[in-house]
Every structure is written in C-alpha cells, then in structure tokens.
Amino acid sequence: MKHLIIITLFLCYCFGACTKTVAIEPPPDVPGPDIPTKPIELFSSQLRVKTVGDDLYISAKLDKDTDILYWFKKCMFNELYTFYRVGLISNSSRVPTNTPDVEPTTLLNLAFSDNIGPFSIVGNGWCGGNHPYIDEKTKTARNVSFKILLDGKELKDNTLTLVDNIQIDVVNEIMNPSKPTKINGKTALTEVLCTETATYKVKGGNIQVSVDHLFKNDEPVNMYLYYGMQSMFNMETYTLTANGKYPDWTPQAAVSKFLKSDYPTFRRFLEKNATAYQSSYLFDEGLGNHAEIADNDVIFIGNSNGKTYHKIVANKIRTKGDSTHWSGLYTWFKSPIIDDEDVLCYEGLINGKETIFIDCKKSVNKVVTLPEKYKNKSFIVKEKSNGLRLVSNKVSATSELKISSDNSGSFVLIF
Fold this sequence. Notes:
mainly beta
C-alpha cells in the first residue's frame, strides 16, 4: 500500500510538470499576412429618423463630434414639401442623436424663401416656391403628395428608428398665373402649369436632389426665369465658384454675377461661414447643361438678399407636353480634407458613392493626402477641367494623390 501511494504521487508530479512544459502562448495581437484589414469606422453612417405627422426629422453624423440635422416639412408660402432647416449639434457618440428634432445649435440653411424653383412667367409674375400671385394673397402651387422611403420601404406611421438610406418623393402642382379666375369673389388659380416631381436622397452631410417638370398648360407661356437649385446658407462670409469667376474664397460683399460665355463649364459654388461649408453642385444633365440660357446671359447670381443661385432657364416658351429635368447635390461639411492657399479638397456622396472634390485655386503641382480609407482605391473621373492632370487614377499606398494644374480648375472623382 505504501508503494502504491508513492507511485501515485510521482505520476501526479510528472503530469503537472508536463502540463507546464507544453503550455501554449497566446497568439500575438496582430493579423497574419494573409488576413485583410480595413480601417475602423470612427462613426456610424446610419441615419436616425423621427416622424411626427407630416414632419420628418433626420440626424446623421457629420464627423466624430458633430451631427447634422435635417427637417423636412411643408413650408414656404405655398406649403410645398422640402427640406426646411439644416443645422448642427455637438455629439461625440458613434451614432447620430436619438432626438433629431432638437433645435440645432448652429443653423446652416433655412428655407425662409424659395428652396427649389420657382418660375417667372412673362407678364404674370412668379409661381411656385415661396411666391404668391401678383395680388400677394393667392397661392401659386400646392403639394399633391409626399412619400418617405426608409431602406426602400414606404413609411406609413410615426417612427423613431435607425436606417441606412432615406428617400423622399414629392409631387407638387405649380399653377398657371396667366389664367386667374374668380371663385366666390376671390382670385384663384385653377389651371395647372406643370407637375413638379422632386426626389431627395439623404446620406451623411448630403442631399441629392432630382427634379422633373411636366407641363400641362393649354396655351404656351413664356418662362422668363427659372433658377432651380438655390442656396440659403446662413451667415455666409465667403464664396468660391468652381470653374467660375471666383476660384478662391472671395468675401461675400464682393461676390456678384458672371456670364455663361465667360465661364461655360461652371456648375458648382461653395459658401462658408465661421463654422461650416456648403457646396451646391448642379449635375451636367438636363437643364444642368445650361443649354436654355444664352451665352451672353447670367449663369450665376452670388449675392442677392442672402441667397445664391444657379440660373438654368431664361426666355423659353413652354407648351403642353414639354418636360424638363435637373439634378444636383447639396453637401455640408465642417472640416475639408485641405483648404490652403492652393487647393480646396472635400468629400461628398454621388449616387451613394464616395466622391472627392478637388478645386485648384491657381496653378499648382501638389500631393494631396486623402483619408486612409481611400488608400489603394481606384476612381473614375466624373469631371476634370482643361489644364488639370492626375498622375494616376488610383490613390497610392500612402493615401497620396498627385495633381498638377496650369490654372485654376476642378476635379470630381468618384470611388
């Protein structure tokens, strides 16, 4: 029995010693060479949505410390459904605030006047947007319907939720001011000039807009003016026009108009104030190609009652069955990639794809360092001004992009 106890103790000792000898070290906390890595997102790309009746509130991360807030509602004199207010609040959380209806601490854009549109009809004044009839009382447009799509599904009830994509489909009717009538002794506009269909896609600091008009007027009308894309950026101090008269930041008081013949490729302007920037980019499609304004006509209006305009129609006859289209991108941001004496470079989204805008303020030969997420990524060139060159259509392994230009001009790169 004594021998049995001794043998048992000996075996236990050996087993313990072996266990210590073969203990496995934890793996190093680094990926192996065959394991791909990707940059960690500093904040969520989702959007918080709150609806209360007709009001749509949206919050999204603008950067890791800031949320951008959107409020869509029926607004302006004619109560058309569009984005009414855009603003900022501080938020260091990774996800957007769950109170998207909170009052912004910084106001960026407010539809105190026309948002998209309106039309000026020769001899009959303005119609649509924020404009009454010439009697200053009668509405000149009405909202027919609006539909909110969250991740492709139509929203039916009030909600508070996180989503990846938001689309707002709006149908308005613009009334014909050349055909007033009387109803119960009051002036009324009963003939529809055109049906206006607007689509808004919201993501991060971007609203992409697409607008179509189908004309229904029984008799031709002469459209004196249509601006389409407008900006009401709050407290702007400087303006820059890509491929325009103001290739560098110009004090707002010194900004005026310029002609299509002088700057035929102009379609994007930027404004900035003490806090943030706003870009208003008219796409080169439909009315955005400026074919409906003459070469000797104004293409840009930069300092008019606190508003800045693209001009896309002047002195064109519209008859029943005519149709028009334009689209563009509003982008708000606080911190550009670069804004120095040579170059402005910032990010946006076009059709959901990451987009880099590079505006050369003068002749440059420069290396632009992009955020790490663009490292080794290829891109297509959506736009490039004459005299501008890229060394490659791929960002380098060090996130660098080499550019050169003989003069001022712009790149738009889609990843």
